[in-house]
Amino acid sequence: MTLSTTKDTNFQTTVEQLEAHRTARTKALVFVSPSNPTGAVYPADEIAAIGEWAAAHGIWVITDEIYRQLVYGDATFSSLPEVAPAAAERTIITDGVAKTYAMTGWRVGWAVAPLAIAKGMGKLQSQITSNVCNVAQAAALAALTGPQDAVVDMRTAFDRRRRYAVDALSAIDGIAVVEPEGAFYVFPSFEGVLGRDIAGRRVDTTLELTEVLLEEAKVAVVPGEAFGSPGYVRLSYALGDDDLAEGIARIAELLTR
Ligand SMILES: Cc1ncc(COP(=O)(O)O)c(C=O)c1O
């Protein structure tokens, strides 16, 4: 079971949704806040309720905290086992250097888990991969223990790009944006542009739309279908300001051509 939200206020409360999907076979919940693809950040009281629900039903929680440093505006990050201590004994935290330190590709991450689970993970891992290479481990250690001002600089840059992307996308007819509060993605609805002819092709789904965007505008985005949310498109703003502006301008140009 994976939980992700687009912050739709018409949703039933999160715990009611979870309960509706729970069966006798439910073993674990994968919880991601800040979220990829939506950029949603869950408030502490909602996370506490989710954790308490999991604890009450003996459900394990795998909480992916890889975007915890990337929250903007009034949003704050909360760690599930901290706000729901009852869930801690069945919680596994995962994290890594890829996002905070722009170290995608270095392949260094870690988990914080109850000892028996950690030992089991170690056994499994040692049979699947040999190890993380020493150079990458040394680089990750330097990132984690060195000065953290680069993290603040990156967060400031991401926040600027986030606000730009929200404004520029909102100005395009047919695109509806929910403001992301974390990570580095925007996940707007493109439903308003479906059913149109774009560059001579009829586009009925976001899967088709993303193909046209790639081929005609040379802009790479991920269709919502990849996340079980057709009608939406994930755009990343983890790129330079000029490239971001150029990419969104090309989308606007193609859709209004
Ligand atoms: C929520 C989430 N967790 C984990 C990862 C994995 O990052 P990496 O494999 O680069 O360490 C990603 C990457 O996109 C992600 O979005």
Structure description:
By secondary structure, the protein is an alpha/beta fold. It folds into two domains: 2-145, Aspartate Aminotransferase, domain 2 (3-Layer(aba) Sandwich); 150-256, Alpha-Beta Complex (Aspartate Aminotransferase, domain 1), CATH 3.90.1150.10. The protein is 39% helix and 14% strand. It has eight helices and ten strands. The strands form three sheets. The chain has a five-stranded mixed β-sheet, with helices on one face. Helix 1 (14-21) runs parallel beside helix 2 (44-56) and helix 6 packs parallel to helix 8. The longest helix has 22 residues, at 149-170. It is globular and about 60 Å long. The relative contact order is 0.12. Mean pLDDT is 94; it is low at 1-6. The site of pyridoxal-5'-phosphate has 8 residues, from loops.
Concise overview:
The protein is of the alpha/beta class and 257 residues long. The chain is built from 8 helices and 10 strands.
Task: Give the helix/strand layout.
Blueprint: E1 2-3, H1 14-21, E2 28-32, H2 44-56, E3 60-64, H3 80-83, E4 91-96, E5 109-112, H4 115-128, H5 134-145, H6 149-170, E6 185-186, E7 196-198, E8 201-203, H7 206-217, E9 222-223, E10 233-236, H8 241-256
Parallel strand pairs: 1-2, 2-3, 3-4
Antiparallel strand pairs: 4-5, 6-10, 7-8, 9-10
Helix pairs in contact: 1-2, 6-8
This protein binds pyridoxal-5'-phosphate (PLP).
Residues 32, 36, 64, 66, 96, 98, 104, 109 line the site of pyridoxal-5'-phosphate.
